[in-house]
From TrEMBL:
<feature type="transmembrane region" description="Helical">
    <location>
        <begin position="47"/>
        <end position="69"/>
    </location>
</feature>
<dbReference type="InterPro" id="IPR035965">
    <property type="entry name" value="PAS-like_dom_sf"/>
</dbReference>
<keyword id="KW-0175">Coiled coil</keyword>
<keyword id="KW-1133">Transmembrane helix</keyword>
<comment type="function">
    <text>DNA polymerase III is a complex, multichain enzyme responsible for most of the replicative synthesis in bacteria. The epsilon subunit contain the editing function and is a proofreading 3'-5' exonuclease.</text>
</comment>
<dbReference type="InterPro" id="IPR036397">
    <property type="entry name" value="RNaseH_sf"/>
</dbReference>
<feature type="domain" description="Exonuclease">
    <location>
        <begin position="503"/>
        <end position="673"/>
    </location>
</feature>
<keyword id="KW-0812">Transmembrane</keyword>
<dbReference type="InterPro" id="IPR012337">
    <property type="entry name" value="RNaseH-like_sf"/>
</dbReference>
<dbReference type="InterPro" id="IPR006054">
    <property type="entry name" value="DnaQ"/>
</dbReference>
<protein>
    <recommendedName>
        <fullName>DNA-directed DNA polymerase</fullName>
        <ecNumber>2.7.7.7</ecNumber>
    </recommendedName>
</protein>
<feature type="transmembrane region" description="Helical">
    <location>
        <begin position="12"/>
        <end position="35"/>
    </location>
</feature>
<feature type="coiled-coil region">
    <location>
        <begin position="122"/>
        <end position="149"/>
    </location>
</feature>
<keyword id="KW-0472">Membrane</keyword>
<dbReference type="Pfam" id="PF00929">
    <property type="entry name" value="RNase_T"/>
</dbReference>
<dbReference type="InterPro" id="IPR013520">
    <property type="entry name" value="Ribonucl_H"/>
</dbReference>
């Protein structure tokens, strides 16, 4: 038997057990030797009683010494080793508690001194490295800022189609219930055939500069995306037998295709409806002008009436198509949303700079328009309105759009003069930008109106506007990446996979109670993802769940979730499916995992998925690192590791999840320092602590 595989406390216990057994054997042997030498049968009972008393005294004394040794030597050494390993491998601030080993002489102060010196050395090294990497960090920030504002979605994928990079625009385009995840397959979000075919086609070309244009669609909404794929260039570390990853840029063309289809339909209908009346009109005119045409009279009048009717239909059709063309024209030009107040202030500033004055009065609207050109048009009109005063710019809501009204005190503008103004170039630095050009861009028109006897105005309607909201939808700017994923070699068996190469999903649940067998249900699930040894801040799952039953007041006092909060929330069937997709291909981690997994396992039929993931429990991990004698509650674990849980986040699913994830990341180097480098090695070690909590890996 290899005693080195046993824990220190077990070996100490075996030592004292052997010592007790040896003492008992020696006592029995001594009594037997004395009895045989004396040869007096009457002394047997006395010797047995004396031996029994002596044996119990010896056992009691050895047990008492073992207990003192276990409490004051074995346990402190185990705790001290766990703290040393944790402080050596994880960045834990604060001094060690020397009182835990007060009977070990100078060992605890020496260990504290070593860890303090190690911390100081690590801080000095960190500062030196930070000084040397400041420039690289700045370059990284600039690159992230640049990529976050690229107007197309960008995905960087490994050779086996796992995501290693994505930007905010890609999150919007993919449109999944949850953001994309690093080390997730791109086929979870985009349909596979076009992408796989384009990748194989690029590989077959053996041209590193080749690119492939393709159309693909999202799985969530069926949105059509125009994509371009380009293989990554082979670096120095690239294996000749390995296939390269690729970059995929995405652009939403659903709207372009719809607009194109509308224009094609409009043109087809235009030709169909104009061709026939035009042909009929041409024939009728030919009849009227022919030498052998009908003589003046009823027959000629009927031909003339038919020609007039066809001309009327042709004119009506042309007018209708013109209006439809004008209505759709604004969709062909990219216009941004700007605040009406900003437009008004910009016009006022431009007019004031030119020596004039105007009062802007605007509603709380967002306008779809080209602000720079519209300011130039309005300021130019004010400049042309010489001899007028009391200018006022009013922007009001007008149905689905807005009405821009430029008012003044004085005579109205004749239409002929207004048309001449609109034909002149605006002061924007380009000669071809005229007032007519600006109105055409916005599919708008302009007309003069008289207001009473002394005031007049010019009106410009805009087709699209909306009310200003206090909290507009944020524009996603984050870029998420881990380029080391491109070089990772995947292992077929999870037991042989290094711990650092695994993807983890740390999760926690809040429930109506502690007894799933008696009808308690989940009311909240939260989870975060850990990829390549770091927690991805943007990849978070956090949702309330309608338990379809009342939440007891006692449970609400613990986690703060009331019946009103879960009203209208999705049920466990939908949330369970979404969580299963979020955790697909990952190792699940929880604190006291059997409790949370029991709730999920009981709902597998309703969810339609099996939660057969590999599982790690931070209770067992804490026992491996710090020993079974320590407390392994989440509060105790985070306190030992120097992790602070904000009071408002404690006993919330997301707060406990983040704390559990950070605790796991701090314990991971300590586990590796003990030689536990693969998942299989770790699980084998966890099973030695089965009396604390059951390991769920079958």
């Amino acid at each position: 038997m290899d005693l080195t595989r046993l824990s220190l406390r077990t070996r100490v216990f075996l030592f004292f057990a052997a010592l007790a057994l040896g003492n008992l054997v020696a006592l029995v042997a001594g009594l037997w030797f004395g009895f045989t030498r004396l040869g007096d049968p009457e002394l047997l009972n006395a010797m047995v009683i004396g031996g029994a008393v002596a044996g119990f005294v010896i056992l009691g004394l050895i047990a008492w010494i073992w207990f003192l040794f276990d409490e004051n030597v074995a346990k402190p050494i185990e705790r001290l080793s766990g703290m040393l390993r944790a402080r050596t491998t994880a960045e834990i601030e604060g001094d060690m508690d020397a009182d835990i080993a007060r009977y070990l002489g100078d060992l605890a102060p020496a260990a504290a001194s070593v860890t303090r010196h190690l911390s100081e050395t690590r801080n000095a090294l960190t500062e030196a490295v930070q000084r040397e990497t400041t420039r690289l960090a700045q370059e990284k920030e600039r690159l992230e800022a640049l990529l976050s504002d690229v107007p197309v979605g960008v995905l960087l994928c490994t050779a086996d189609h796992q995501l290693a990079f994505y930007n905010g625009q890609a999150v919007e385009l993919l449109g999944s219930a949850h953001a994309p995840g690093l080390d997730r397959r791109v086929f979870d979000y985009l349909n596979q055939p076009p992408i796989a075919h384009a990748y194989d086609r690029l590989l077959a070309t053996e041209d590193p500069d080749a690119a492939s244009d393709l159309l693909c669609s999202t799985k969530a909404e069926g949105r059509v995306l125009a994509a371009r794929m380009r293989l990554l260039s082979e670096g120095e570390d690239h294996h000749l037998s390995a296939r390269p990853g690729y970059v995929l840029t995405l652009r939403d063309v659903s709207g372009d295709m719809a607009s194109h289809a509308q224009r094609e339909q409009l043109m087809d209908e235009l030709f169909d409806r104009i061709r026939r009346p035009a042909a009929a009109l041409q024939s009728l005119i030919g009849v009227l002008t022919a030498d052998d045409g009908p003589a003046p009279g009823p027959e000629r009048d009927r031909v003339r009436e038919a020609a007039n009717s066809e001309a009327h239909h042709l004119s009506a059709a042309i007018h209708e198509f013109f209006e439809r063309h004008e209505a759709n024209r604004a969709d062909w030009w990219p216009l941004a949303m700007i605040r009406a107040s900003d437009l008004g202030q910009a016009v006022a500033a431009r007019v004031t700079a030119e020596g004039g004055a105007i009062l802007p009065v605007t509603a709380g609207l967002m306008l779809r328009c080209e602000g720079f050109e519209m300011v130039a048009l309005l300021a130019g009109l004010v400049r042309k309105l010489t001899g007028r005063r009391g200018f006022r710019l009013e922007i009001t809501e007008d149905g689905p759009g807005a009405l821009i009204a430029l008012e003044w005190e004085g005579a109205p503008v004749p239409i002929s003069e207004l048309e001449r103004w609109l034909d002149q170039p605006l002061d924007v630095g380009l000669e071809d930008v005229t007032g007519h050009r600006v109105l055409t861009t916005h599919a708008a028109e302009i007309w003069p109106e008289k207001l009473g006897d002394t005031r007049a105005r010019l009106c410009i309607p805009l087709r699209e506007a909306r009310h200003v909201t206090k909290r507009p939808k944020p524009v996603p700017r984050a870029v998420v990446y881990d380029f080391e994923l491109l070089a990772r070699e995947r292992v077929a068996e999870i037991a042989d996979t290094p711990l650092t190469d695994l993807t983890y999903v740390v999760f926690d649940t809040e429930t109506t109670g502690l007894l799933p067998t008696e009808g308690d249900e989940i009311v909240q699930i939260a989870a975060v993802r850990i990829v390549n040894g770091r927690r991805i801040d943007t990849e978070v799952f956090d949702t309330l769940v309608d338990p379809k039953r009342s939440i007891p007041p006692g449970s609400t006092e613990v986690h703060g979730i009331s019946n009103a909060m879960v009203e209208g929330a999705p049920d466990i069937a939908k949330v369970g499916r979404d969580f299963h997709r979020f955790a697909e291909g990952a190792v699940l981690i929880a604190h006291n995992a059997p409790f949370d997994m029991e709730f999920l396992h009981r709902k597998e039929v309703a969810i339609g998925e099996r939660f057969d993931h590999p599982i790690l429990d931070t209770v067992l991990l804490s026992a491996v690192v710090f020993g079974q004698s320590e407390s392994h509650t989440l509060d105790a674990l985070t306190h030992r590791l120097g992790i602070t849980i904000p009071e408002e986040a404690r006993h919330t699913a997301i707060g406990d999840t983040v704390a559990t994830a950070d605790a796991f990341l701090k314990m991971l180097p300590a586990l590796q320092a003990r030689g536990l480098r693969t998942f299989g090695e770790l699980v084998a070690e966890l099973r030695k602590h089965g009396r604390l909590i059951k390991d769920l890996n079958g």
